[in-house]
Amino acid sequence: MFENFKQTFQEGFVFQGRSSRSQFWKFVLFTFLVSIVLLIVNSVVFGPTITTQFNVKINSAGEQTESLTQLKQYSSGWLGIIFGVVILIPGVAVAWRRMQDAGWPGYMTFLPIAGAAIAFALFFATSHTVPIDTASVPQGIEVPATMRLPNSALTFFVAWLTAAASLIATIVLLARRSQPGPNKYGPNPHEVPS
Length: 194
Fold this sequence. Notes:
This protein has 5 helices and 4 strands.
């Protein structure tokens, strides 16, 4: 698995050609395992991040409820951020080549971003602004004066479904078999001696 990760980094800025399913999914697995290790290391060394949140909920009748919660979150911290920056371009490159290996254009890798953008635009186009009653907010806690609510549950569901469907479609495309023989992106990686 480490050799696969090393090969992916050596091809880190190469967007031409094809990558096999095993190369892509081994890269994903290695990245996942390193992220877990970084989460554990950061949690042991620095502990959890504790945040206090003031929550405001407004139902469809316009009734407002507030609550104060304290969250304990564990993360990979700065180590995870640095690791994420280091693997970003090689990760996009191997996913790009994996799409091309399955016969799809590499830019299909960004389908989830397009789906999220469409969902975000749909939500804001079909929602309205509601004022928040800040009279009962404890002193020292800052809350916005307004929040956006969807006009209907259907449009909120369609926006959520658009984002989820684009992510699922991308995973399905990345999991497809290699096209047999050469395709317009290059030779089949299973048929090329390494």
